[in-house]
Amino acid sequence: MNSEATEERVLEAVAERRELVNEALDDDVPMKSPERLYEATRYLLKAGGKRLRPTVSLLTAEALADVEPLSVDYHAFPALDGSEIDVMSAATSIEVIQSFTLIHDDIMDDDDLRRGVPAVHREYDTETAILAGDTLYAKAFELLSETGAAPENGLEAVRRLATTCTQICEGQALDVEFERRTEVLPEEYLEMIELKTAVLYGAAAATAATLMGADDDTVDALYRYGIDSGRAFQIQDDVLDLTVPSETLGKQRGSDLVENKETLITLHARQHGVDVDGLVAAADVETVSEAEIESAVSRLEESGSIAYAEAKAEELTANAKRHLDVLPDNEARDLLADIADYLITRGY
Amino acid sequence: MNSEATEERVLEAVAERRELVNEALDDDVPMKSPERLYEATRYLLKAGGKRLRPTVSLLTAEALADVEPLSVDYHAFPALDGSEIDVMSAATSIEVIQSFTLIHDDIMDDDDLRRGVPAVHREYDTETAILAGDTLYAKAFELLSETGAAPENGLEAVRRLATTCTQICEGQALDVEFERRTEVLPEEYLEMIELKTAVLYGAAAATAATLMGADDDTVDALYRYGIDSGRAFQIQDDVLDLTVPSETLGKQRGSDLVENKETLITLHARQHGVDVDGLVAAADVETVSEAEIESAVSRLEESGSIAYAEAKAEELTANAKRHLDVLPDNEARDLLADIADYLITRGY
């Protein structure tokens, strides 16, 4: 696997769809009265984002329809029963949910910045941010209920999205709970990131497949593709925090260690006798030295903890790609496989 | 109309269904892991509430099916096409949405108490309260997507609920905006309470009717029944704040005036030359005197503002009841009419 070529193909596929997704989001979440509410609702959507999840939805539909990528209008897309559906609405509903969760998470975590701009509760206020998130939440269900798909498929997609949202809330609650606990098992951590991060990748693929009219086994396999890729993505995030220079990361390398955030890496290290709490003495990212981080990372390399996480991410990615076997052999399927690879080979 | 007999019939109908609704809520939102999240999610639902909105849903289904009230299992209820649906899930989904909006509203308004107990963000914390509201939000859509109704009806009900949630957010945003504005027109106030309060009554009736398989005109009429009753309910709330003794209200009479909250009454008074801002000099409900409130109320009576609001509520209630003409003439329909009357004749 040539990861540079893979990355190039993925970034091109995402960029080609990003413009279309952004146009659709602008139509789906229009500026209207009350203006302050809708400004806040649109603020984070306008601040950027790769649009990886909607790209997964669109490629899933293209792979299932076995059409040449970007050859058919996403708003009038051929479902498997020959009817036309608006598969773009499924894609934007996922991005809208992602946006709602980020807005509410930033309030809960009291984070100041998101996508390089002030978080919504900083740019506006907490009340407006809560309400902006709630508005996006409803919008996602509106979008998914108006795709023109066969009603039983539309309803099944809505049910999947609702369950996904419940799981994301559970994942966020577990994340908060783990910060207060003295012991977290690696299995519990993997469960948490499945709920908090991976299920939305799963839903991105599965809702598109359901609306297209794919059979249950196919939908389930594509859901597993999203779940496994999403888990690998989160584990890779934890690895990158330790292995990528601060200037490339855009934040202090090793910040998870400084902030005592448990990851698969620290959990493995604990189980192998490493004094994780004593690895970094500095109390915050402003005072930590590069030498201290370097020494901590060396210790985690010695215990095999970083290699363990990398191996876990690779295993999940291999699983994810195997699930794509249910799809016809075509360019869109290859791009979905490339995205799974990209999620763990990306440099930051 | 004998309002005491009406009130008795309504309270009995509501009480008879409350136990069933509470049992269903306990099943629909069960205790599970993560425990702190689900405790918070269930906390307000367990704290009480009349269950007026789910009662409207259940009576709507009974009126449409033309069955004797309480004679059929709500979980296996005969839709108009002869199939069986879980109309209770439609009822609980509305109560779950109501609960979610109260939890988030109390954070936004920084209110300490709700239903006689600490608000969720006081009993737990703001992070947990945001997440508990978000969890209920998803749960409502899950419930509504699993009623067993014909898929096109299920999907239409979901679409209605999503639009309703968007409107509730818009109403809350307008309410906040009006507090900052120097002038609000009565029409704007009526629009705000329609969005913030009435649409959920509309959805309570309309989603049940849609799931039952009623035709579009019937669904629309029942939606209007809910909207007009809900608007009358909110206007009556504003009247009661001025006309009911503090001990009966359970809070300081005239608190809206002390807190400079605009209502249909104050907006009418302003348009008729009353210096509303000068009516009550006291800065908070702790220091206001009964004499000061009495004098303010007299002034609002002289300007005809209270009578104007009462007449408006009565007009809306009459409209609401006329919309029930689409239903078969039966006991459930009579009870829906009684509920509309009760919403404006209730003493507090």
TrEMBL record, chains A, B:
GO MF, one annotated term: metal ion binding
One Pfam short name: polyprenyl_synt
An annotated GO BP: isoprenoid biosynthetic process
Keywords: Magnesium, Metal-binding, Transferase
Cofactor or coenzyme needed: Mg(2+)
Record-stated family: Belongs to the FPP/GGPP synthase family.
This protein's name: Farnesyl-diphosphate synthase
Source organism of this protein record: Halobellus clavatus
